[in-house]
Amino acid sequence: MASAEQVATQAVRRDIRDRWLLSAPALLVIFFAASGPLLIVLVYSFLTPGPYGDVQWTFSKEAWTSVFLERDIFDDTLSFASAHVTIFWRSLKLALMTTIATLLIGFPTAYFIATRSEKSRDLWLFLITIPFWTNLLIRTFAVLQIIRNEGIINTALIKIGIISAPIQILYTDTAILIGMAYVYLPLMVLPIYASMEKLDFRLVEAGYDLYATRWQVLRRIIFPLVKPGVIAGSILVFIPAVGAYVTPSVLGGGKNLMLSNLIELQFGQGRNWPLGAALSITVMVIVMAALLVYVRNTGSSETRHG
Amino acid sequence: MGCCVPETPGRNAIEVRGVRKVFGAGEAQVAALDTVSVSIRENEFFTLLGPSGCGKTTLLRLIAGFDFPSAGEIMLYGEDIAPLPPFKRPVNTVFQSYALFPHMSVAQNIGFGLEMLGKPKDQVKARVAEMLKLVRMEALANRRTSQISGGQQQRVALARALAPQPKVLLLDEPLSALDYKLRKEMQIELKRLQSETGITFIFVTHDQEEALTMSDRIAVMSSGKILQVGTPRDIYDRPAERFVADFIGETNFLKAEVTGAANGRATVKLSSGVEIPASLPAGFSPSGKVTIVVRPEHAHLVAGNEKASLSGIVENVVYLGTDTHFHLKLDDGDAFIVRRQNARGGPVDLAQGDRAGIIIGGDAAQVLKD
Question: Does B166 contact A at CB distance below 8 Å?
Answer without folding.
Answer: no
